[in-house]
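hey so i finaly got around to running the thing on DUF885 domain-containing protein from Nonomuraea jiangxiensis. pasting the sequence first so u can double check i didnt mess up the copy paste, my clipboard has been acting weird all day
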Amino acid sequence: MTEWPRDYAMLALRINRLIGGAALSGGVLIYRGPEEWGARAGSEPPAAPGKLADDAERLLESAPTPYLAAHVRAMRAVARYLDGERPPLAAYARECLGLEPRRLPEEVFEEAHAELDAALPKGPGPLADRLRAWQAAHTLEPIERLPALVAKAVTETRARTNAIVPLPEGEVVGCRLVEGVSFHGAGAYEGELRSTIHINKAIPYNLADLLYLVAHEGHPGHIAESMLKELHLADRRDQEVRFMVSPSFVLSEGLGLLAEEILFPGDEAQVWLNRHIFPDLGIRSDGSDFAAIHHAKNVLWGVWGNVAFLADEGRPDADLVAYLTRWALYSDEEAGRATGLLKPSPTSPYIFGYFHGWELLRPWAARRAERVRRLLTEQLLPADVTSGAESDPGADPRGT
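ok and heres what it spat out for the C-alpha cells, dont ask me to read them lol
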C-alpha cells in the first residue's frame, strides 16, 4: 500500500501529459506532490493511453477509500477516451464525475430570464441588450485599477470565511491581470500561504461581479479549499494530486458558484459594494438586484451543459452559437468563444460541474456553516452530499 500513492500520482501525471499539461501544472491536474515524480513523468516517453487505462484498473482493485476509487475511475475513463473509446457524453461524464448530468428543459432558462427581467433596470429593447447595458454601466475603466479593488474584496471575503472556518494568519492573496487566456478569472494556491487571483484583462470587468468572482476564486472558493485541504489533510499524500475531471471538482465548482451567497446572503453583497467600492468610482444605484442577477447567472450555466450535449451529437457550430445567444443571452462573439470550449474532448465532462455542482450544494450547504467547513477541509464526493429535498433552480435567491 505504500506504493499506491506514488502509482496514483504517476497515473495522473501521465494522463495529464497526454492531454497537454506540463509535468507539474496545467492540463487537468493540480499537482503539489514530490518533484521527482513530476520530473519522471515529464522525462519518460509518453505512455500509451490503453496501458494507462490498465494501470487504473489495477489501482482500482486496491483503492483504499471510496473517494480515491471514484477518482481512479475518472482517470480510467479519461485514459479510455484518449485510447479511442467514445461513449455517449452522459455516460462518460457519469464515470468521470460520479453523477449523471441531464439536459435541462428550456423552461428552466425561461424562468431565469424572467428573474433577470425583474432584476435589471427597466428599459426598452431585448433582455440581452438590457443585460449588456447593465454590465456596461458597472464596467471598470481602466482595468488596471482592478487589483486594488480585488484586494479590498479579498480582505472582506477572507474575514467572513474566517468566521466559518479558521484561516491561517499570514496568508497573502495577490491579483494579476493576464492576457491570452480563455478564462475570465482563476484562483491559484501556490503554497506557503500565498495565492494569486488571475483576471483576464481582455474582457471588460463588471464591478457588480467583484464579490461574485473573488468569493468564487478566493474565499471560500478555490484558493481557500486548496489551502485548507493542504493544511487539514497534510497526512494524505493523495491530496497533493488533484485530477480535475473528477467528482471532487463538481463540488469545487459548485462551491465556487455558491460562494458569494454563503458569505453575503440576501442583498449584503450589493450593500457592501455600494458602501465600499462604487462611491469612489462614480457608480450610482440603478435599482437592479445583484443577488437575483447572480442567481440567474448560475442557472444559465446549465445552457453550457445543453450545448455540450448538442456538440456531442455533432450539431454544427451555427446551432451551438444560436443556442448560446438565445438562452445564455450571449453576443455572437461571446457565443463563438464559448463554442470552442464546448466541443467534444477528453475534458468535456468538466463543464457539468458548474450547474450540477451548484444545484447539488445549494440546498445542502447554503446557510449551513458546518457543511461549508466540511467542503473546505474534507474529501467529499457528490454521493456524500444529500439535501433531503429536491433542488429548485428557480428558487428565491435569498433563501433555500
